[in-house]
Amino acid sequence: MTLYEPRKAFKPKRAPQRAAYDREVVHAILDEAYVTHVAFADGEGFPHVLPMYYVRDGESLLLHGSSKMGQAAAARRGAPFCAAVTLIDGLVLARSGFHHSVNYRSVVIHGQPEILEGEAKARALALTVERLAKGRAAETRAPNEKEMRATVVISLPLAEAAAKIRAGGVNDEPEDMDLPVWAGVIPMQTVFGTPEPDNGVGAALKPPILTQSNTPEVKA
User: Fold this and answer.
1) Which long-range contacts (CB under 8 A, 24 or more apart) does 30-34 make?
2) Residue 1: which residues within 8 A CB-CB, separation 6 or more?
3) How many percent of the chain have pLDDT more than 70?
4) Beta 19-20 vs 160-166: how paired, if at all?
5) pTM to 2 decimals?
């Protein structure tokens, strides 16, 4: 097991016992989630946070979007990024309002983004498609020249990465245990629904088989 070693300033100060720095834990959370919230400052120092679909490629997150979006300008300027990913596993209902909580798994990443070009950019865009459904990158049309120019791909390294996890049950005070209030955990999970074909899709074309955790592998 190898560990990430984020700077002290980036380590959780509240409930530090919930922090985890081993790569397997961080990777598993990133590979299960689909959306990250990316924070950065614009040229005037104004903060922005935007949700983005992503894919993990080894020791980096790949983000893509319009070449005119704010993240692209910030990355070209050399501004640092902070990205957060969260999975909710359950609602924790206690006997007291103070001890209500949520079971979750999260990852926070701080890093210097890099804009990818050429073959690295094309590979990254294939990965973003492949993660949605295995084999999808090979069977769909690749981006044309116009689409490539309109798209930016940003790589965010995982060098400064840390997980934080809350699991388990209720942490009520001993004097509250006899209160006539229901307490416990209500589990939560995200599941795929029934595929809904687009207009014009023939009956012979079958939807892909999806898995909740799909780490793509696309060679250069």
Assistant:
1) 30/54, 30/56, 30/61, 30/85, 30/107, 31/56, 31/213, 31/214, 31/215, 32/87, 32/212, 32/213, 33/85, 33/86, 33/87
2) 22, 23, 24
3) 94
4) antiparallel
5) 0.89
- pLDDT at position 208: 86
Give the H or E element holding residue 178: none
Coil, strand or helix: which one is 5? coil
Per-residue model confidence as pLDDT tens digits over 58-109: 999 999 999 999 999 999 999 999 999 999 999 999 999 999 999 999 999 9
What tens digit of pLDDT does each residue of 142-159 get?
999 999 999 999 999 998
Q: Which CATH architecture has domain 8-171?
A: Roll (2.30)
Q: How far, CA to CA in Å, does 49 sit from each of 79, 97, 210? A: 14, 30, 29
- 215 backbone φψ class: left, alpha, beta (φ>0; ψ -120 to 50): beta
Q: Which residue has the tokens 């190898």?
A: 2
CA distance between the termini of the chain: 28
Nearest to 27 by CA among 69, 62, 60: 60
